[in-house]
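> call design_seq(struct)
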């Protein structure tokens, strides 16, 4: 199995490599739960990676409840990562002229934003208050739009009871600061500052798009995709060397028990 192979590869390099496991999400939920329980015995596994479709109907699917229960119980971190989940139609008839720019720069973050917001709106974080989610690409647009999401929820009749009173629910800012971590793969200090403001310095983890976006010039040795993210962290924190240190590695060491 792929999870066993990944664990064995990491175990061959103790203290250097760790892995996020995959889940058989095309199988019945019972098999997914069984794999989650088995993962607890793999010493190098630090979490699971999930796409935005879940079992096929999105992350607000009620059928995911036993999966969330198992992940919460196992205290496994969920890395939420998109993969071409938006229809090509949204990028327009000339999208092919722009290569992968529209789906990678905009599609991935927007796919993530929608998926996470569906989780929030459906009450996943009420039902599973200890669930831990690491959201890729600095949370997509969530750090920028969390206030707008909060406002829309407050003004939406669907979230009020028969008497018109707002139902009690956890605020999105509380969820972001207690259940969510964000990676720092945003390539600018502007976006990174928004991520830090949303979840806090201790909940942002450095990352890159390696091994994608390699150098395009033969003479180029340094990967621009790595350098840009390092510069974004340095630029966002300025003289705050401790904050930069935490994002560049300290937070990951703590969260993932490296």
């Amino acid at each position: 199995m792929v999870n066993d192979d990944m664990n064995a590869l990491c175990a061959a390099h103790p203290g250097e490599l760790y892995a996020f496991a995959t889940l058989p999400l095309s199988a019945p939920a019972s098999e997914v739960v069984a794999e989650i329980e088995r993962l607890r015995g793999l010493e190098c596994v630090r979490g699971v990676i999930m796409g935005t479709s879940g079992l096929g109907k999105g992350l607000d699917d009620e059928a995911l409840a036993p999966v969330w229960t198992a992940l919460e119980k196992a205290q496994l971190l969920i890395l939420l990562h998109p993969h071409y989940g938006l229809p090509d139609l949204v990028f327009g008839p000339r999208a092919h002229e722009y290569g992968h720019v529209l789906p990678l720069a905009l599609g991935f973050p927007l796919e993530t934003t929608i998926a996470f917001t569906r989780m929030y709106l459906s009450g996943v974080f009420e039902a599973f208050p200890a669930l831990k989610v690491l959201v890729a690409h600095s949370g997509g647009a969530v750090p920028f739009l969390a206030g707008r999401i909060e406002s829309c929820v407050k003004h939406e009749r669907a979230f009020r009871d028969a008497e018109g009173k707002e139902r009690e629910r956890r605020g999105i800012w509380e969820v972001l600061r207690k259940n969510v971590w964000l990676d720092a793969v945003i390539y600018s200090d502007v976006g990174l500052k928004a991520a830090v403001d949303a979840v806090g310095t201790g909940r942002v983890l450095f990352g890159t798009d390696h091994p994608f976006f390699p150098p395009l010039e033969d003479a180029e040795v340094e990967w621009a995709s790595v350098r840009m993210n390092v510069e974004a962290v340095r630029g966002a924190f300025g003289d705050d060397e401790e904050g930069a240190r935490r994002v560049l590695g300290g937070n990951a060491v703590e969260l993932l028990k490296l």
